[in-house]
Write a structure and sequence with these properties.
- This protein is α+β, with helices and mostly antiparallel strands.
- It contains 10 helices and 14 strands.
- The strands form 4 sheets. Strands 5-14-11-6-8-7 form a 6-stranded mixed beta sheet. A 4-stranded mixed beta sheet has the order 1-12-13-4. The protein has a two-stranded antiparallel ribbon with strand order 2-3.
- Strand 9 and strand 10 form a beta hairpin.
- Helix 3 crosses helix 5.
- The longest helix has 29 residues.
- The radius of gyration is 26 Å and the shape is elongated.
- The mean pLDDT is 86.
Amino acid sequence: MRISDKLVEFAGQENLGVYEMAADYYNHYLAEHEKDSTREYSTKYSFSEKEDKLNAALRKEIMRVAGIQNVDAFPVATWGSHPVLNWAMFAVVNNIVDMIFPNTIPANISAFSEIRNMDWGDSYVFDIKPRDLFVVSKSSRLGKRTTEMQKQYSGQVAVLPTAHELTVGVSLIKVLQGKESLADYIARVNRSFEYELTIDIYNTFATAMDNIQSGSPLNLKMTGFSETEFIRIAQSVQAWNGGAPVVAMGTLQALSAVVPSSADAHWRYELDSEYARIGYIRNFKGVDLMVMPQVADWKNPFGLKLNDKRIYFLSPSSQKIVKVVLEGTTMTITDSPFDRQNLLQKASTLKSWGTAAITNAVAGEIVLS
């Protein structure tokens, strides 16, 4: 995982170990809790051992950042209300979230989105260059007469991020006592923000694709699957994206509909065939198929977020359809541990981002019936 210059400036090159431990712990957390083994992590220690070691290292790093060297001179309860110690804890937490967050977006999203970073208070402007070619006309041989002058202009679209916030109860005293896992808190905060950003990206992408007009000159949006329309849309998208290879994306259920026509009497699949084993054909008529793993809809218990009735056609190597802008760093606002009667602090963590469909690329869609 990439260590940013800002993190090096904050912690110092000699103190990066705890942050690397946090990144490794998060990858292990995903494998342990969500069975996501796509990210690398050390197997030297078990997950529980790794959590204990990280919590101990985090407490040590918080003390270092706070400039406290005589921690054993006072009871833990005394340190629990120390304002600098409180600031230091969330300064460390926020830097870890900033390090992990951009690297945790699902890999398949990169096929249609790109991420940019900017400072607080800025706006990010994207230049959209025209796809058109210059018109070439026949002219008189070696004559002075010229054709009509042409000039192309780039468009500009600005993305203004929006703040997103979550509020959690945290006890600094229990963290210092080792009774509350700061490592688990960081993982859950990061996972929550990651989920929300992922949904925003998917929603922006799906809305843009559904806005493709059917009946347009290219007819890039069709209802109902057929081999002929699948091939026609795929080759149209590839041709109008300058020959960039095209892929068809959809959920597993959507891609399972991509099969040869029943009129093709030569097509068969056996129980050990690719279609039976993984549920779809990896390559159909020369077009690669890419599964978009379903996402749980946490606002609708046991619901799924992605549309199972859509197959999307796009060229990943052309200009991305969705632009994502991350604004500034993570910030946390806290109150006093004595504002309640249980030593809990209200920690409101903010991250700011914006998404928009901004592209000069061509894409297509099949709406399954």
